[in-house]
Write a structure and sequence with these properties.
three-stranded parallel sheet
């Protein structure tokens, strides 16, 4: 999906709902000036306008206006989003100035009055995706978690992140550790006692650490042992890579499931850091156009790249999301997936020990089992 003028949405203005921007209008996004700390009134106003989205408004560190706005583009591009012809360049200016033709115009609102009148959004990449209507998948998963589930424990391990709440236990892949130094998203009072749904709202971000925590919270609810009655209509006895017909002639796999190549030697792999024979990300669109089956690692949901992959692969007949981080939720079918293959934790205590000790292959018989949901059970369970 390209970030182009025809897909743009303006934020609410004076209480009105977001609306599509016509092609003859400037491509414009209004952002709060990152140096403008939100007052209590402004925060309350924004919270009211975004009813239903659980997200705390907190003061942001002061940054240079232009740097904050321009930072959004590489973050979105790194996740796989493309900038269309009308957004080939970014123009940053104060609200009230004339827009630059054929550019993504970002206007910074210098005061709370202008911010409220223009329906400004925070200078954050996920908020821009939301304004463009491209964040529905994450928001649907977050809203599927009911309130009133207190968190008992959170573990952020080297390889996995875990959230426990009573009998509920969910995991997600931890973010890759970089060299930016130590940082934390832990509140001063800790996570214990917070609502699982509040933790799940961290999925509404482009920060990998927050998304990992949010996804683990979503999975604590969606991947519980007592499968919801609503899931029964979609349950399948088997799924994932094991159901792809050998030798994988018409399959493309996004993610490094290299062990699968022993049975599927003709399958092609798309990787961010390709090895010889892999498909680089720049050529992924072409690969999607010539395949009949696409298997995508659930880590893409953690790093924010799933939505653009689904947008680019819309013509693929059969698409699977696979991996322990995958939410076992039929909501994913509404976003173009045909099958989801995730993990259910059987022994939370064993999972905690495994994660603390830097374990990697968590799909061990005594720790977790798999769960497969298929959008259409009337078909043959073997994908094309």
């Amino acid at each position: 999906m390209k970030l182009s003028r025809s897909t743009a949405l303006r934020g609410p203005c004076e209480g009105r709902e977001p609306r599509l921007v016509r092609d003859d209008e400037p491509f414009t996004i209004y952002l709060d000036d990152p140096g403008l700390l939100p007052s209590a009134h402004n925060a309350a106003d924004r919270k009211e306008r975004r009813a239903g989205e659980i997200r705390q408004i907190a003061p942001r560190e002061r940054q240079t206006d232009v740097d904050a706005a321009r930072h959004c583009r590489p973050v979105l591009q790194n996740a796989g989003w493309e900038f269309g012809s009308h957004a080939g360049q970014i123009s940053v200016a104060e609200a009230g100035q004339e827009p630059t033709p054929d550019a993504l115009n970002i206007f910074l609102c210098k005061d709370t009055h202008t911010s409220r009148m223009q329906g400004a959004i925070p200078a954050e990449p996920f908020q821009i995706l939301d304004a463009l209507g491209a964040a529905r998948l994450e928001q649907a998963l977050t809203k599927s978690v009911p309130p009133g589930l207190p968190v008992d424990r959170v573990i952020v391990g080297f390889n996995w992140t875990l959230v426990r709440a009573g009998d509920l236990c969910g995991i997600a892949r931890s973010r890759a550790c970089g060299i930016e130094g130590a940082r934390t998203i832990r509140p001063a009072e800790g996570f214990a006692g917070q609502d699982v749904r509040d933790l799940a709202s961290n999925l509404n971000s482009m920060d990998a650490l927050r998304r990992s925590l949010g996804l683990a919270a979503v999975n604590a609810y969606c991947n519980r042992m007592d499968s919801p009655d609503a899931d029964a209509a979609y349950l399948a006895p088997r799924g994932g890579l094991a159901t792809i017909r050998a030798p994988g002639e018409n399959a493309v796999i996004v993610g490094g499931f290299r062990a699968a190549l022993e049975r599927l030697p003709r399958a092609r792999i798309v990787e961010r850091e390709p090895k010889p024979g892999d498909i680089p990300l720049a050529e992924a669109r072409t690969a999607y156009q010539s395949t009949s089956l696409l298997a995508v690692t659930a880590q893409t949901l953690m790093n924010g790249s799933l939505a653009p992959i689904l947008a680019l692969s819309g013509l693929v007949p059969y698409r699977i999301l696979v991996g322990p981080s995958c939410p076992a939720s039929p909501l994913l079918f509404d976003h173009g997936l045909d099958e989801i293959f995730g993990a259910v934790i059987l022994d939370p205590e064993a999972a905690e020990t495994f994660i603390r000790e830097s374990g990697t292959m968590i799909m061990l018989d005594h720790i977790a089992t798999t769960r497969t949901l298929c959008a259409t059970l009337e078909r043959d369970k073997t994908p094309p």
